[in-house]
Amino acid sequence: MASPKLLLQLCISSLHHITASVFSLVWRWTPGAFKGTDRTLEERKVQNATTPTSVNYHFTRKCNYKCGFCFHTAKTSFVLPLEEAKRGLRLLKEAGMEKINFSGGEPFLHDKGDFLGRLVQYCKQDLQLPSVSIISNGSMIKEKWFQTYGEHLDILAISCDSFDEATNQLIGRTQGSGRKSHLDNLYRIRSWCQQYKVAFKINSVINTFNVDEDMTEHIVELNPVRWKVFQCLLIDGENAGEVALREAERFVISDQQFQEFLDAHSSVSCLVPESNEKMRFLDCREGRKDPSKSILDVGVKNAICFSGFDEKMFLERGGKYVWSKADMKLDW
């Protein structure tokens, strides 16, 4: 069983749903053939380990929403102590990390967003990373957080699967009746991003409940720097199977349906599609998520060297892009 301290989930997605208390990595291959015959296969793999250029840190599994398709379910409430989390981030920076993306669960839920804010500040101010980003459902974000930590954040991505409140209710992207509107939060946060100079992004999971929805008008109005569109994906043990906490089968759409949604929104220039074919490089080659040992225990190279990775697919899916707000030349 993997250490509960800092699991390393091998993935190349900047998704908002992957693994708890986990550093999940997107990397590029570091060239250089191994020379010599006196080392084991494992040592050779470590020697030729990949560079964690872009990292997703899913430091919590807890979430206040109940999205029916979510494949990052709350199996534990464990969150690393702040200083241990910082140590892991420092190790990743030393190994070549350029971009960190904080996710969950809902990352603003733990310690009312202050834990997240301190990590964001540390990554930008102390580690001087070119890009620091967050994926959130937006429900817990307050303007005070922007006032305290906004200057250290490059990109804030808000998950929004529909611009119809009834559809969001069916999906589970809501805190229940009588609570704040998910769409009101979305537009409010968009305004704060403009005010505090944080690049704004939207993530949407396309499923049976929204596959026929035309989102063009709203996306154009919100004008995100990127609109990441995911095809609903099943992961055994998370949102599918006997031990899963979700039953997402009813949300799954075909490849053809997903392509038809993309075709219907082809005029939206910021759209970046993420099909199931591209998302399967989560190290879920056996139909599940298999974490490595903790980077705090074995180091970055040892933790990532036994995974499968397709650099061509990483580039095709738009994994490398302009991710520092200083380079985006946005009109604030």
TrEMBL record:
Residues 49-271 form the Radical SAM core domain. It is a peripheral membrane protein. GO terms for cellular component: endoplasmic reticulum membrane; lipid droplet; mitochondrion. PROSITE patterns: RADICAL_SAM. The keyword Transmembrane helix does not apply. Its main location: endoplasmic reticulum. GO terms for biological process: defense response to virus; innate immune response; positive regulation of immune response. It holds the Pfam family Radical_SAM. Its cofactor is [4Fe-4S] cluster. Keywords: 4Fe-4S, Antiviral defense, Endoplasmic reticulum, Immunity, Innate immunity, Iron, Iron-sulfur, Membrane, Metal-binding, S-adenosyl-L-methionine, Signal. It is found in: Endoplasmic reticulum membrane. Residues 1-20 form the signal peptide. InterPro entries: Aldolase_TIM, Elp3/MiaA/NifB-like_rSAM, RSAD2, RSAD2/Viperin_antiviral, rSAM, rSAM_sf. One of its GO terms (molecular function) is metal ion binding. Belongs to the radical SAM superfamily. RSAD2 family. PANTHER family: RADICAL S-ADENOSYL METHIONINE DOMAIN-CONTAINING PROTEIN 2, S-ADENOSYLMETHIONINE-DEPENDENT NUCLEOTIDE DEHYDRATASE RSAD2. This is S-adenosylmethionine-dependent nucleotide dehydratase RSAD2. It comes from Seriola lalandi dorsalis. The lineage of its organism: Eukaryota, Metazoa, Chordata, Craniata, Vertebrata.
